[in-house]
Design a protein that fits this description.
mainly alpha
């Protein structure tokens, strides 16, 4: 007569959370590389073109430089914020689920709104049509369309404004959550509060943007690697978050 065997106990889900921590750590280092590359790009190639005509000339003369100055790297880097916040949620979920969940939701909605704004690829399509236009009227219409895109792009439009506001609010909130436990050091938390707080202020007070971002920029270069290293440490340890809260004593 067959004997019923006891069902195997469900395996801990810690390994799945560790995968998210690892992915978040890698994303933090990718965002660090993006931040460094952006600083170099601004020095070497300059910032965004001021007019649609200038953008079309850039794309026609050197497509790669034109796309760089139209912030295509930002479009490519933004999705890594999704991954970073999933890793942060995995690390902080035992600190109190509500606030990590809210910060993750704010960041996700913010990044999605920024994606909704037109950007470099829209200008590239218009530039090709501008180059092929046969009449001055067609060129003037395409240039007007380009100006409209630049006025509503990821730095100027309503979606971009709200997206940046939500993303930076989520990052400030997750940095405040870090202060509640010992998963992340207080150093990481305070740097995050200051860096993202300044970025949030830069969105609300654009007239002081250059000064605020001149201070926040170098702090990003500290915050991203510290967060990335800590997330990778948590992933390697393979221990539940509740245990890890007592481990973090390093900056």
């Amino acid at each position: 007569m067959p004997v019923d065997r006891p069902e195997a106990a469900p395996q801990s889900d810690d390994s799945e959370w560790n995968v998210l921590c690892r992915a978040g750590g890698v994303a933090a280092f990718i965002l660090l590389a993006y931040s460094l590359a952006t600083m170099v790009q601004l020095v070497v190639f300059g910032g965004a073109p001021a007019t649609a005509g200038e953008a079309f000339d850039l794309l026609r003369g050197n497509r790669m430089v034109g796309l760089l100055r139209l912030d295509l790297p930002t479009v490519l880097a933004l999705p890594f914020y999704y991954v970073l916040f999933l890793g942060l949620f995995a690390a902080l979920r035992r600190t109190g689920e509500v606030y990590p969940m809210v910060s993750t939701a704010l960041a996700f909605v913010g990044v999605t709104l920024i994606f909704a704004a037109p950007g470099a690829l829209s200008m590239l399509a218009l530039s090709e049509r501008y180059s092929a236009a046969k009449t001055e009227l067609a060129r003037s219409q395409l240039q007007a369309a380009g100006e409209a895109i630049m006025a509503a792009d990821m730095w100027h439009g309503t979606a971009a404004f709200m997206g940046g506001l939500l993303l930076q609010s989520g990052t400030v909130l997750v940095s405040l959550v870090m202060l509640r436990g010992n998963v992340f050091s207080k150093t990481i938390a305070y740097i995050g509060i200051v860096a993202h707080g300044l970025d949030l202020a830069h969105i609300l007070l654009p007239s002081f943007g250059i000064v605020l971002m001149a201070i926040a920029g170098p702090l990003y270069l500290i915050w991203f690697p510290l967060v990335g290293r800590r997330l990778l440490q948590l992933a390697r340890s393979g221990a539940p978050s509740a245990t890890l809260e007592a481990e973090c004593h390093e900056p």
